Amino acid sequence: MSQPADGLPPLRDVIERHGIDARRTLGQNFLLDFNLIEKVARSAGSLDGLTVLEIGPGPGGLTRALLSLGADRVVAVERDRRCLPALAEIGEVHPGRLDIIEGDALTMHPGEIAKGGRLAIVANLPYNIGTQLLVQWLSGEEWPPAYESLTLMFQREVAERIVAEPGSRAYGRLGVLVGWRMHAEICFDLPPQAFSPPPKVTSSVVHLVPRERPDPCRFADLERVTQAAFGQRRKMLRQSLKPLGGQAYLEAAGIDPTRRAETLSIAEFCTLARTLESRTTRS
Ligand code: SAM
User: Fold this and answer.
1) What is d(CA 9, CA 38) in angstroms, rounded to the nearest whole number?
2) In degrees rounded to 5, what are phi and psi of residue 31?
3) Distance of alpha carbon 50 from alpha carbon 35, whole angstroms
4) 269: CA distance to ligand 1 center in Å?
5) Ligand 1, closest atom to CA 57?
6) Sequence ranges of the domains in the chain
7) How close is the Cα of 23 to the center of ligand 1, in Å?
8) Among the four given CATH numbers 3.10.290.10, 1.10.3370.10, 3.40.50.300, 3.40.50.150, the one describing domain 11-210
């Protein structure tokens, strides 16, 4: 797709006409090449019958691709009001298919956007809140969640932590929380020059699909355990998990207290989370 057949101007013209010079405080690194933008949108799979929640549409390149590739509806949440007139022009050429919400994505709940229909989340995320948003979307009490998939751009280093396996250097709290509830894969990388302005590092598109039946445990317990364990990742668990009960706690969970956090599988972390729950509800 060199340019969607929507009759709208190239993105450089849109940005210039609406004065959307990129602001670092809003994590603005815009994608301008429609071939790459289409590749990001296609990583979400078929969009037929789906409402897409897009976080941070900016001047609307990805929004245009999602609509052209057949999403039923796009709900675009943008904090920068300078982008709104450009987005309104996209809405005019796709009547009834684009809802623009001016606001902070951190305050939005996918369930309220889905309204019981099928939802996917697709975004070139602002890097400063990307991890926070992902963890928020993972943390809901209801599972499976309101969305069918997440297709998100992260810094490569964050993407590696998202898909990390036990024993690897990148394995930590994020990899456990994600791997517990999601299947996650890195689709492809984008070099800094793909963006305007170019960020300092390589970016990656990650596709995540909720697991139907994750190992049962509570998000808050898993978060507490992983935070303590990886907070002192070089230490033995009996030391790093001392605030949660140390040796006795690990023995109750059937985990060797001399092991280190990065050697534990996600299933073992879930066992620790369940043991924590039973010990805290007992006391
Ligand atoms: N989607 C566009 C693209 O691919 O070129 C822009 C992506 S840019 C990396 C991130 C976008 O998120 C910016 O448009 C920025 O204004 C917006 N943004 C930043 N913080 C936000 C927040 N808390 N809620 C919603 N949008 C936000």
Assistant:
1) 16
2) -95, 130
3) 22
4) 34
5) 1
6) 11-210, 219-282
7) 10
8) 3.40.50.150
ipTM, interface predicted TM-score of the complex: 0.99
Atom of ligand 1 nearest to the CA of 127: 9
- Domain 219-282 in CATH 1.10.8.100: yes
Which residue, chain included where needed, has tokens 């943390």? 139
Residue 281 has pLDDT above 80, yes or no: no
Mean pLDDT score across all residues of the chain: 96
Q: Which residues sit opposite 196 in a β-bridge? A: 30
Q: What pLDDT is recorded for position 1?
A: 63
Rounded to two decimals, the pTM is: 0.96
Task: Measure 32 CA to ligand 1 centroid, in angstroms.
Answer: 14
Q: Give the tens place of pLDDT for each residue, 193-250.
A: 999 999 999 999 999 999 999 999 999 999 999 999 999 999 999 999 999 999 999 9
Nearest residue by C-alpha to atom 22 in ligand 1:
104
Cα 28 to ligand 1 centroid, rounded to whole Å: 6
3-state secondary structure at position 74: strand
Tell me, using a 6 A CB cutoff, whether residue 58 lines ligand 1: yes
